[in-house]
Amino acid sequence: xxxxxxxxxxxxxxxxxxxxxxxxxxxxxxxxxxxxxxxxxxxxxxxxxxxxxxxxxxxxxxxxxxxxxxxxxxxxxxxxxxxxxxxxxxxxxxxxxxxxxxxxxxxxxxxxxxxxxxxxxxxxxxxxxxxxxxxxxxxxxxxxxxxxxxxxxxxxxxxxxxxxxxxxxxxxxxxxxxxxxxxxxxxxxxxxxxxxxxxxxxxxxxxxxxxxxxxxxxxxxxxxxxxxxxxxxxxxxxxxxxxxxxxxxxxxxxxxxxxxxxxxxxxxxxxxxxxxxxxxxxxxxxxxxxxxxxxxxxxxxxxxxxxxxxxx
Length: 312
What we know:
The structure is a single chain. The protein is α/β, with parallel strands linked by helices. The protein has helices at 28-38, 54-59, 80-90, 115-125, 154-157, 182-187, 242-252, 260-272, 288-293, 302-311; strands at residues 2-4, 16-21, 42-47, 64-68, 95-99, 103-106, 129-138, 160-161, 166-170, 177-181, 201-202, 205-207, 214-216, 220-221, 226-235, 283-284. It has a single domain, classed as Spore Coat Polysaccharide Biosynthesis Protein SpsA, Chain A, CATH 3.90.550. The chain is built from ten helices and 16 strands. The strands form four sheets. A six-stranded mixed β-sheet has the order 1-4-3-2-5-12. Strands 6, 7, 8, 11, 15 and 16 form a six-stranded mixed β-sheet that branches. Strands 9-10 form a two-stranded antiparallel ribbon. A hairpin with a 6-residue loop joins strand 9 (166-170) and strand 10. The chain is globular and about 55 Å long.
């Protein structure tokens, strides 16, 4: 990989974020803005041949270090061949968010406190990561109506989600469990392509140590200490560009596993055209307390007690 711009400094205590992107100019401004507000100090972004102005946008951001990577996402094992060494080089000893451009990290009471407070709590507890449910967000009408305006809010554009069901199964690698379900299991037929809906579990926030490895995107990794705090990644796949991105992914076979998920998306879109994901059971997003009430996010007594002590 080739780094653009200034070298990444050695600066203890920074929270860093790692992303791997290709043609993500639509979502990146909202993504970076959200995580800056949470307290990310520095972004390390691998650009894999973007053609939509993504690279120019990243180069203009003072807190972004951009790396250019050749080859395909599939050849790099969904970017892990690029991002695992990047984390070793620049995130050793740092709390690090590993994100896709269409994901916003949220955690219990994130509206009141930032990542520095959460990471201080996890350090005190001796933990190195937390679990997250990937929560698919979608708009009120058809996919073509989920238009994100320049400078607009992802949450305002796609404010709805499925409160369940989410099914938990065991897997052989850490964290040894996997969630499936939600709107993608409800709407799309994955059986002809891979036999199961996509995994909805991730480990996005890690106190990185050189030699750690993500093994399957950020769904699985080498074993470490997991704190029993259930966070979320709000997932904004279903914007108005979804159909076009699906066609590109299938035609170019860019994704790992020959874009099998995208073949299922394309089959339904080709058959039905524009689709509406919202139904009578859909819930409008209202914040972290709502997700706690729905048991989509979870916390033990120690996290709110820690926050109370901090405020006192």
